[in-house]
Every structure is written in structure tokens, then in C-alpha cells.
């Protein structure tokens, strides 16, 4: 088989893959993104055919303390399997939170060891856990022991270039009972700078036999094939390229077609209504602004700053959505152009 046909040996993005006893419907996963992948966004992405969607990270200690925001983050309806991501720095709280989410319908508990935010790493959770593998493992072991559902792990390559330890942690996590590992091909110190190193993810593939998901800078179908080729991963995860297009994971997986502009307008209307319903009008209007901004950026790049400011500052939902639809309808770029820019 010549190199150009190499992809024929690999399963199609549209094919199912199995994790523990669960079957995921395709190999394109929507990344957990705090402030983005709330219930409305996940419901849309799921409906458009994403292989798997993951909640925003839920802070374990806050959830055990019954924080309303934590409960809102783990809500699910119509999404199967329901995957909840937990963050934390202490085994006890992670285990207790895992019991709560599994008891409330989570089919998978994912552990966050990738978040680079100072607010999170300052508390030694997120990617800071990678600096202390023994401690990270105690937390993983406690979570696995606490629940009957599969536990998965998402992390970066390491803390910095001098401490690339994802393979070591991945191997130990597998031995501790973790059932799937996702690697974002950057170090913590890179934050989101530079380019994700898809080749470096292959070092994790070499040491684990459980399913591996590769993540970082995947925007197109060609990217998805390339990251799988270079990393040897079983599935791909997409984050920022889905902002302003909740259908994107489904399109990459071959489960949905790009909507035309009429379709986009109707999705934006529905998304807005879902957000107002989920958060209530006051908070919903504010949370929805970033999504409207992304839709406009992608599909109405010619909208004026005056138009955008009116949309971003209005507190009247009917006016906001009417102005957004007008801008999208007037300023829509052709879908071919959008595809090329993807
Ligand atoms: C706004 C935002 C919020 C994020 N929140 C989380 C999170 O809650 N949990 C997590 O594991 N990763 C989080 N991430 C990281 C993404 O899951 C993903 O690993 C990263 O964006 C790289 O993928 P991409 O290049 O496809 O965006 C977040 C990323 C962004 C941009």
C-alpha cells in the first residue's frame, strides 16, 4: 500500500468506536470548553452528529458543596452517553463528586488534567497535576474506585518542554483502570500558543492499548485525518473550530451537511431561545453574546461595528435576535468561502 493510501488502513471518522462497554457513534468528539459547551451547545452538537460531547469542567469540591453552577454544568437531556468532566486537586473530593455525577446519570466520568488557567493551576488542579504524577495517580485511582462507570482522562503533553510526561502518566492511568485518554498536543506553558504537536501524541499511543483521542488545532476533515495519521489515535477531538458552528463535529464525522444560510439563521434562532430558556432571560442574554459574536464573525464578517455593538449591548432579546438575523442574512459569505477558510 503506498503512503497516500495509508489512511485506508485506519477506520473512517464516521465509524463507531468502543470504550469499555460503550459504543460511541463516530470518531469526532466535541471538546469540553468552559463557558461554551453548556447544555444548549452540547444538545445542538449532539443533534448534528458529534460522536461524543463532554460537559464543561465541573469543580469537584464545589459540586459536593452543592454549588448551583456545578449542577447546571452537569445537566443533560437527550444526550447519550452523558459524559461529565470533573476537575479538582484532592482525591477525596474527586471521588465524592464522581459518585454524585454517576448517581445522576453520567455514563462516563472524565478527569481534567489539561486546563492551563492560573485560577485552576494555582489551586494545583487542571494541568498542574501533571507536575506531580504520584499525586495525579492518587486522584485517578480514587475516582476509578468510586464509580462503576468508565473513567477517562484528558491532559496535555506535560507542564513544559522539559517535562513531557503524558506517556508516563497515561501508562500509569491505564494500569489504574482509566478507559480512554485524550491528549491536547501542547504543554501547559504553551497555553494556546504555537501549534499543537500531533507527532508528540504518538508517544502516548506507543505505551497504552486503551482508546486514545488526539486534540489540538483540528479545523478541517484533512486536519482530522492528519492528526489521526500522525498520532495513531482512535478518534479526534475538536474545540475552538466548533465555536460559532455547533454542527461542525457532525460535519467532520460525515453525519451532517453544512447548513446553508437559511439553516444557519434557524440554528442561531433556536440556539438563542435554548440559552434564554436554560439560563433565564437576564443571564441568558449575557451568556449568548459570545456565541452570537462567533456566528457573526464566521458568517457575517462584513457586519459593521455599530451593528455588532447594538447586538452585544441590547438587553431586549427580541431586538438582539432580529438584528443578528438581519446581519447574517445581509452579510452572509458564500458557504464555499467559509469552507475554504475552515
Ligand atoms: C474557552 C475554552 C474553554 C475550555 N475549557 C475546557 C474545560 O473545561 N475542560 C477541558 O478539559 N479543556 C478545556 N478547554 C480545552 C479544550 O478542550 C481543547 O483541549 C483545546 O481548546 C484544544 O483544542 P482545539 O484546538 O480544538 O480548540 C477549553 C478551551 C477553550 C478554548
Query: Which strand order do you get reading across the main beta sheet?
Result: 4-3-11-10-9-8-7-6-5
Q: Counting H and I runs of at least 4 residues, what is the number of helices?
A: 15
Using DSSP, what is the number of strands?
11
Strand percentage lies at: 5-15%
Secondary structure class reads: alpha/beta
CATH architecture of the largest domain: Alpha-Beta Barrel
- Cα gyration radius (Å): 20 Å
The structural domain count equals 2
| Helix and strand element order | EEEHEEHHEHEHHEHEHEHEHHHHHH
- What is the global morphology? globular
**What proportion of the residues is helical, as a percent range?**
40-55%
Write down the overall mean pLDDT: 93
User: What compounds sit in this structure?
Assistant: flavin mononucleotide
What does this structure look like?
The chain folds into 2 domains: 3-252, TIM Barrel (Alpha-Beta Barrel), CATH 3.20.20.70; 261-341, no CATH class. The chain is built from 15 helices and 11 strands. It has helices at 39-47, 60-64, 68-73, 91-103, 118-121, 133-146, 166-175, 202-205, 221-231, 248-252, 261-279, 281-299, 305-313, 317-331, 335-341; strands at 17-19, 22-24, 28-30, 52-53, 58-59, 83-87, 108-113, 151-158, 180-187, 212-215, 235-238. Helix 7 links the parallel strand 8 and strand 9. Helix 4 runs parallel beside helix 6 and helix 11 runs antiparallel to helix 14 (317-331). The radius of gyration is 20 Å and the shape is globular. Bound molecules: flavin mononucleotide.
Amino acid at each position: 500500500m503506498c503512503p497516500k493510501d495509508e489512511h485506508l488502513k485506519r477506520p473512517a471518522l464516521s465509524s463507531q468506536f468502543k470504550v469499555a462497554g460503550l459504543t460511541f457513534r463516530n470518531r469526532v468528539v466535541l471538546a469540553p470548553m468552559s463557558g461554551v459547551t453548556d447544555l444548549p451547545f452540547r444538545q445542538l452538537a449532539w443533534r448534528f452528529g458529534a460522536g461524543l460531547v463532554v460537559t464543561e469542567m465541573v469543580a469537584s469540591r464545589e459540586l459536593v458543596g452543592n454549588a448551583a453552577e456545578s449542577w447546571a454544568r452537569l445537566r443533560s437531556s437527550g444526550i447519550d452517553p452523558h459524559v461529565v468532566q470533573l476537575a479538582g486537586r484532592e482525591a477525596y473530593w474527586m471521588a465524592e463528586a464522581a459518585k454524585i455525577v454517576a448517581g445522576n446519570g453520567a455514563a462516563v466520568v472524565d478527569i481534567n488534567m489539561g486546563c492551563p488557567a492560573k485560577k485552576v493551576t494555582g489551586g494545583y488542579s487542571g494541568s498542574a497535576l501533571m507536575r506531580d504524577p504520584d499525586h495525579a495517580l492518587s486522584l485517578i485511582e480514587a475516582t476509578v474506585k468510586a464509580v462503576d462507570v468508565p473513567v477517562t482522562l484528558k491532559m496535555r503533553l506535560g507542564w513544559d518542554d522539559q517535562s513531557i510526561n503524558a506517556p508516563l502518566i497515561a501508562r500509569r492511568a491505564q494500569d489504574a483502570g482509566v478507559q480512554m485518554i485524550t491528549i491536547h498536543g501542547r504543554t501547559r506553558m504553551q497555553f494556546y500558543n504555537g501549534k499543537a504537536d500531533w507527532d508528540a501524541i504518538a508517544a502516548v499511543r506507543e505505551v497504552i492499548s486503551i482508546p486514545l483521542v488526539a486534540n489540538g488545532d483540528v479545523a478541517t476533515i484533512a486536519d482530522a485525518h492528519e492528526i489521526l495519521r500522525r498520532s495513531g489515535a482512535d478518534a479526534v477531538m475538536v474545540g475552538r473550530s466548533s465555536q460559532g458552528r455547533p454542527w461542525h463535529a457532525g460535519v467532520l464525522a460525515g453525519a451532517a451537511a453544512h447548513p446553508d444560510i437559511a439553516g444557519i439563521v434557524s440554528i442561531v434562532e433556536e440556539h438563542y431561545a435554548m440559552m434564554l430558556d436554560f439560563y433565564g432571560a437576564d443571564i441568558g442574554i449575557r451568556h449568548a453574546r459570545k456565541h452570537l459574536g462567533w456566528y457573526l464573525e464566521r458568517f457575517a464578517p462584513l457586519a459593521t461595528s455599530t451593528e455588532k455593538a447594538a447586538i452585544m449591548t441590547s438587553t431586549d432579546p427580541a431586538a438582539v435576535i432580529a438584528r443578528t438575523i438581519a446581519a447574517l442574512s445581509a452579510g452572509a459569505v458564500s458557504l464555499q468561502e467559509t469552507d475554504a477558510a475552515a
